[in-house]
C-alpha cells in the first residue's frame, strides 16, 4: 500500500533516545511480532562483509540488509510491518521497533545523500485524486524508489495493463543502499520517513497511465528526529551556479517531464516488451562440476553447518545408511564427513530444533520406519541422535511450528500407512508423536503453509495412487482436518506452494511422474483451489522447486526429469502461467534438487543429486536466470592437445584429444547441450604432441592429423563422417615434430600440411596430392626450438603466409608466401621469454591479422599489430597465469570485441581477458580446470550460438567443458 500522505501523523520522535545496540539485541523486542525473525537476522549478519562500505559497522550494514530481505510467504517482512506502523495515525504499535529504528536510521544517515535526481515509484491504481496540484504531501514510511526505468515493466511495481500511477520524484536526500542490500543488482534509492513534497504536475501520456510529478522540499518543522547529534538527514546547503536560474529551471524540467511522459506513454501504451540497454557480460564462465555422493544418494539440504558464509550440504545415502556432510570453503571445494543413520535414509531437512542458533538435522529412514534427529555442534559435526518411530515406509519430512508455541515441530509422510504423522517439539531438540492423520492412498510428499489465511499452518499432501492431493486445514494446536481433495495428473509425487500469480494468495504446483506433466492449482484464499492446468515436462519428472531465478519479481520453476537426465527451467509471467526457457543436462538419473547461493554471488544456484552415478551436480546461476554446469570427461593419460569439429555430421560439435603417455587419440562425440559420449580410442605414433582436423580428402568429412614427436612422423586418420575413423596412415617428417597447421598452399583445391620440426629448427611443407598421400615439398629454417605455427595472409597479397614461434630464441618468425607454395623469411620479432603458442586474429578491428603469442617463460601474452603489409609493430604485453601453453581468440561476451582465453599449465588455471577496443584487454579473469592444463579450444558445444571452451588437463587426465553463460 502506498503512503498517500493524507494521514495526520505527528513527527517521528522518541526512537533516538534508545541506545544503539547490536542488530540481534535491537531486534529482540520484535521477536513476537515477526515470524522467524532470528533466522533472517542471522542471514543478514552472515551476508554482511567484515568491512562494510561507507564506514558502517557490521550491525549497521546488516540492519539495512535485514530491511531489504523478503520473508517467505505467507509471512510479513520486517519492512512491510515497519512501514505499516509508520503510516498509522496512532504509532503506539511502533514502540517495539524503536531500537531497530535507532540502528537503521543511524546507518542510513551515515550514507551520503545521492545528488538531487529524479527517482521513480509505481503503483497499480489511479491516485490522481489523492494528489491535487500544488498540494503538499508527506510520505511517513520508508519509500523504495528506483532510478531504472525497467521498473515500468515489472508486474510487482507497475506492469503494463490496468490503472497505473507512476510517481516522478525530484529527491534531495535519497540514500542508495545497493552496497548494503540483500538484492545487489537493484539500484534502490530509499527515501526516509517524513519525506515532504509538493505536487508539481500530473500527466496521462497513455490510456490508464498517470504520471504525478512530486518535488521534495525541506519541511517547515523537523518531521524525522535526528538519530544522533551531528547526523545529517539532508545534505548541507550550497548555492551552486544555477541558483540565479532557480525560477527558469522548473519550467525546463516540466518540459522535459512532458517529453519523457510522451516517450513513456509510447513505451507502455504501444509495446509489449521493454528492452533495456544490456551491459557487456564480464564473467562468461563458471568452474563447477560434480562431486561424489556415495551409493544411491537420495536427498539433500543446504545450510551453514559451520556458521561461516559458505553453504554446506548434507546428503542422504540410502545404500550406505548414512548422511554425508560436505563443508564448503572459499575455494568452492567440498570437504566431507559421515553420519550413521537408520536403514535406507531417503529424506532430510535442517533447522534449529533446540534453539541454540546451530543447524540440526532430521532424517527419515524408510527401511526401519524411524526418523533420527541429530543436533548440530556448529562446526559441521552433529551429536545427540534421538530416534522416533513413525508410520510404515516414511518418505518425506517437513518442519514448522504447527501448534503455535514458538517451537519447531515435525510432519512425516508414511506411504504404506497412508498417514501423516505429527511430532511436536519441546524446543530442546526432543519430540513426541502427537497424532496420525489419514490421507489418500500412498501419500508421498507434503508442504505446509497458511492456505486459508487464518494464521494457522495447513498441509497439502500428494496421494500417488489416488492421483489426488489432500488439503488439511490446521487448528493451530498441532491437529488437522481434511478439507478438500483435488485431482492431479498421473502419480503425483512432489509438490510446492508459492504465489505464482502475484495476488498474495498461495498456489500449488504438483509433479505428475507418470504422465510427464506438472499441475498448477491457483489458490482462492480460503484453503480451496481452482482446478488444475498442466504443462509438459521431460520424462519422469521427480522434483520441483520455485524461486525468482531471473530477478523479474515473478516466480519461476525448476523441474528435475529423472529419465531424461535433465532439469528444465520454466520462467513465470507473474499471472500464474509459465514458458519453458531452457533445459540443462545432469548426471545419471537425477532425483532431487535444492537451491541456494552456493558461491556467494547473490544469484540462485542449483544442486542436483544424481542417483545412479552417485554424483551431485552443481549449477551456478546468473542474474538473467540461466545456469552454468562445467562437466569434465576422462581421457587417456597425459592429454596434451585437442581439436574441435563435427566428426559425425550431425550439426553438433565433437572433439578429439591426443594422449602422450598412451600414444592414442580419443574422439568424444557431442550429443547436444554440451554433453559428450564416452571416448573412442585410436592408436597413433609414439609420444603424440599435437592434433589438427580438416577435410584432407575432399569427401566432406573431417579427418585428423597427429604429430608424433618421438616417431618423427605424423598419423593421418581419415574420417567416415559417422564419428569413426580409418586406421592411421603414418608419414615420416623431420625430427621431433611439435606443431601443425594446414592450408591450401598451392591453390590446387587440396589442403596441405605444414609441420614444425623442433629437433631440426625448421618447418616442413607437405603437399597433398588429393589421393590420400602427402609428399615432402620443401624445408625452411626458423629459430631454435620452434614450438608453434599459424597461417594467414599477413600482407594481403592473396597468398597464405606463416608465423612460427621459437622458444630458445624468444622470437616469432614471419615467412611470406611467394604464391607457388614456397616461402621466404620476412622478419623475426622478439617477444617474451620461451614463446609456446601463436595464433592470428584481428584484435584492433583494422581488418589486418595480428599475432597473439603466449610466453611460457614470462607468464605473459604479447600482441603484435599488423600494419597491413605484413609488418608487425607496437608489441603490447598482458599478464596471465603461470606457464601459459595454449590460447584462443573469440568474442565470448558478444560485445563485438575479441577476447582471449589462455591455458596456464603452471597455475592450473584458464585466464580470460575480455577485449575493450583498439587491441587492449581487461585484466585476466581466472577459472579453474583440472590439473596441468595443456591445450584449449573454443566452439559452440551446446548449440546456443555462444562460444564455449574445452581444456585438456595433462595430469588429471581429463578434459573440462566450460559452457558460456553470457547473454546472446
Number of helices: 6
CATH superfamily of the largest domain: YVTN repeat-like/Quinoprotein amine dehydrogenase
Structural class: mainly beta
Q: What composes the largest sheet?
A: 5 strands, mixed
Give the termini separation.
Answer: 38 Å
Domains (count) = 4
Q: Order of strands side by side in the largest beta sheet?
A: 1-4-8-7-2
Describe the 3D structure.
With 968 residues, this protein is mostly beta strands. The protein has 4 domains: 1-110, no CATH class; 111-222 and 240-275, Toxin ADP-ribosyltransferase, Chain A, domain 1, CATH 3.90.176; 290-630, YVTN repeat-like/Quinoprotein amine dehydrogenase (Methylamine Dehydrogenase, Chain H), CATH 2.130.10; 633-879, TolB, C-terminal domain (Neuraminidase, 6 Propeller). The protein contains 6 helices and 67 strands. The protein has a 5-stranded mixed beta sheet with strand order 1-4-8-7-2. Strands 9, 34, 35, 36 and 37 form a 5-stranded antiparallel beta sheet that branches. Helix 2 (37-46) packs across helix 3 (58-68). The longest helix is centred in the N-terminal third of the chain and has 23 residues, at 248-270. The chain is globular and about 95 Å long.
Amino acid at each position: 500500500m502506498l503512503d498517500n500522505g493524507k494521514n495526520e501523523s505527528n513527527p517521528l520522535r522518541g526512537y533516538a533516545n534508545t541506545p544503539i545496540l547490536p542488530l540481534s539485541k535491537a531486534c529482540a523486542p520484535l521477536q513476537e511480532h515477526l515470524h522467524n525473525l532470528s533466522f533472517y537476522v542471522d542471514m543478514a549478519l552472515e551476508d554482511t562483509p567484515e568491512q562494510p562500505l561507507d564506514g558502517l559497522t557490521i550491525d549497521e550494514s546488516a540492519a539495512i540488509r535485514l530491511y531489504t530481505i523478503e520473508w517467505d510467504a505467507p509471512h510479513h517482512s520486517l519492512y512491510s510491518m515497519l512501514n505499516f506502523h509508520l503510516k498509522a495515525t496512532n504509532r503506539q504499535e511502533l514502540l517495539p521497533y524503536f531500537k531497530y529504528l535507532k540502528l537503521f536510521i543511524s546507518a542510513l544517515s551515515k550514507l551520503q545523500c545521492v545528488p538531487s535526481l529524479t527517482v521513480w515509484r509505481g503503483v497499480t491504481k489511479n491516485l490522481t485524486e489523492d494528489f491535487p496540484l500544488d498540494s503538499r504531501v508527506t510520505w511517513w514510511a520508508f519509500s523504495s524508489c528506483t532510478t531504472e526505468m525497467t521498473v515500468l515493466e515489472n508486474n510487482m511495481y507497475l506492469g503494463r495493463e490496468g490503472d497505473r500511477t507512476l510517481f516522478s520524484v525530484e529527491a534531495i536526500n535519497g540514500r542508495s543502499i545497493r552496497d548494503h542490500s540483500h538484492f545487489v543488482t537493484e539500484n534502490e534509492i530509499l527515501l526516509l520517513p517524513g519525506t515532504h513534497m509538493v505536487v508539481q504536475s500530473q500527466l496521462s501520456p497513455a490510456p490508464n497511465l498517470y504520471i504525478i510529478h512530486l518535488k521534495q522540499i525541506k519541511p517547515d518543522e523537523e518531521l524525522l528526529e535526528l538519530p544522533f547529534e551531528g547526523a545529517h538527514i539532508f545534505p548541507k546547503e550550497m548555492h551552486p551556479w544555477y541558483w540565479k536560474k532557480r525560477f527558469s529551471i522548473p519550467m525546463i524540467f516540466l518540459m522535459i517531464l512532458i517529453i519523457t511522459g510522451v516517450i513513456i506513454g509510447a513505451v507502455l501504451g504501444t509495446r509489449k516488451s521493454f528492452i533495456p540497454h544490456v551491459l557487456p557480460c564480464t564473467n562468461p564462465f563458471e568452474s563447477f562440476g560434480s562431486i561424489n555422493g556415495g551409493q544411491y544418494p537420495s536427498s539433500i539440504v543446504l545450510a551453514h553447518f559451520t556458521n561461516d558464509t559458505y553453504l554446506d550440504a548434507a546428503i542422504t545415502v540410502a545404500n550406505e545408511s548414512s548422511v554425508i556432510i560436505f563443508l564448503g570453503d572459499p575455494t568452492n571445494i567440498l570437504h566431507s564427513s559421515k553420519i550413521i543413520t537408520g536403514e535406507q535414509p531417503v529424506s532430510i531437512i535442517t533447522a534449529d530444533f533446540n534453539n541454540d542458533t546451530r543447524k540440526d538435522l532430521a532424517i527419515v529412514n524408510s527401511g526401519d520406519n524411524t526418523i533420527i534427529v541429530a543436533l548440530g555442534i556448529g562446526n559441521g559435526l552433529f551429536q545427540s541422535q534421538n530416534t522416533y518411530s513413525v508410520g510404515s515406509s516414511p518418505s518425506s519430512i517437513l518442519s514448522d511450528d504447527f501448534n503455535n508455541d514458538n517451537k519447531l515441530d515435525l510432519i512425516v509422510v508414511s506411504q504404506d500407512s497412508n498417514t501423516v504423522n505429527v511430532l511436536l517439539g519441546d524446543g530442546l531438540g526432543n519430540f513426541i508423536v502427537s497424532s496420525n492423520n489419514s490421507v489418500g492412498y500412498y501419500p508421498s510428499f507434503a508442504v505446509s503453509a497458511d492456505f486459508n489465511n487464518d494464521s494457522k499452518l495447513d498441509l497439502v499432501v500428494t496421494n500417488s495412487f489416488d492421483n489426488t492431493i489432500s488439503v488439511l486445514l490446521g487448528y493451530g494446536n498441532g491437529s488437522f482436518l481434511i478439507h478438500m481433495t483435488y485431482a492431479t495428473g498421473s502419480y503425483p509425487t512432489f509438490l510446492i506452494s508459492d504465489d505464482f500469480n502475484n495476488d498474495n494468495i498461495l498456489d500449488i504446483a504438483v509433479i505428475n511422474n507418470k504422465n510427464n506433466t506438472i499441475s498448477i492449482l491457483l489458490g482462492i484464499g480460503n484453503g480451496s483451489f481452482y482446478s488444475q492446468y498442466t504443462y509438459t515436462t521431460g520424462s519422469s519428472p521427480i522434483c520441483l522447486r520455485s524461486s525468482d531465478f531471473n530477478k523479474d519479481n515473478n516466480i519461476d520453476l525448476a523441474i528435475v526429469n529423472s529419465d531424461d537426465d535433465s532439469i528444465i527451467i520454466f520462467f513465470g509471467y507473474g499471472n500464474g502461467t509459465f514458458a519453458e526457457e531452457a533445459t540443462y543436462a545432469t548426471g545419471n538419473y537425477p532425483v532431487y534438487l535444492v537451491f541456494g547461493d552456493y558461491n556467494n554471488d547473490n544469484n540462485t544456484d542449483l544442486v542436483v543429486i544424481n542417483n545412479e552415478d552417485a554424483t551431485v551436480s552443481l549449477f551456478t546461476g546468473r542474474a538473467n536466470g540461466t545456469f552454468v554446469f562445467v562437466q569434465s570427461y576422462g581421457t587417456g593419460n597425459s592429454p596434451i592437445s585437442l581439436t574441435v569439429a563435427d566428426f559425425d555430421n550431425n550439426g553438433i560439435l565433437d572433439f578429439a584429444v591426443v594422449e602422450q603417455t598412451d600414444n592414442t587419440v580419443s574422439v568424444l562425440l557431442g550429443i547436444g547441450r554440451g554433453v559428450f559420449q564416452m571416448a573412442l580410442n585410436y592408436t597413433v605414433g609414439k609420444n603424440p604432441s599435437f592434433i589438427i582436423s580438416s577435410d584432407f580428402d575432399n569427401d566432406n568429412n573431417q579427418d585428423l592429423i597427429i604429430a608424433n614427436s618421438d616417431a618423427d612422423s605424423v598419423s593421418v586418420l581419415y574420417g567416415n563422417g559417422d564419428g569413426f575413423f580409418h586406421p592411421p596412415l603414418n608419414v615420416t617428417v623431420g625430427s621431433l615434430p611439435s606443431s601443425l597447421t594446414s592450408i591450401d598452399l598451392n591453390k590446387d583445391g587440396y589442403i596441405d600440411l605444414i609441420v614444425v620440426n623442433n629437433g631440426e629448427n625448421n618447418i616442413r611443407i607437405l603437399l597433398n596430392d588429393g589421393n590420400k598421400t602427402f609428399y615432402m615439398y620443401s624445408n625452411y629454417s626458423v629459430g631454435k626450438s620452434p614450438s608453434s605455427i599459424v597461417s594467414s595472409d599477413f600482407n594481403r597479397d592473396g597468398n597464405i603466409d606463416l608465423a612460427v614461434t621459437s622458444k630458445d630464441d624468444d622470437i616469432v618468425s614471419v615467412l611470406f608466401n611467394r604464391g607457388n607454395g614456397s616461402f621466404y623469411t620476412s622478419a623475426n620479432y622478439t617477444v617474451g621469454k620461451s614463446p609456446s603458442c601463436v595464433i592470428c586474429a584481428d584484435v584492433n578491428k583494422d581488418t589486418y591479422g595480428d599475432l597473439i603469442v603466449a610466453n611460457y617463460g614470462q607468464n605473459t601474452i604479447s600482441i603484435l599489430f599488423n600494419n597491413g603489409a605484413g609488418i608487425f609493430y607496437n608489441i603490447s604485453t598482458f599478464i596471465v597465469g603461470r606457464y601459459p601453453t595454449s590460447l584462443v581468440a573469440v568474442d565470448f561476451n558478444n560485445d563485438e570485441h575479441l577476447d582471449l582465453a589462455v591455458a596456464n599449465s603452471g597455475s592450473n588455471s584458464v585466464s580470460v581477458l575480455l577485449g575493450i577496443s583498439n587491441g587492449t584487454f581487461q585484466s585476466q579473469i581466472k577459472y579453474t580446470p583440472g590439473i596441468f592444463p595443456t591445450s584449449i579450444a573454443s566452439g559452440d558445444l551446446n548449440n546456443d550460438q555462444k562460444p564455449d571452451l574445452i581444456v585438456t588437463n595433462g595430469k588429471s587426465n581429463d578434459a573440462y567443458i566450460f559452457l558460456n553463460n553470457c547473454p546472446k
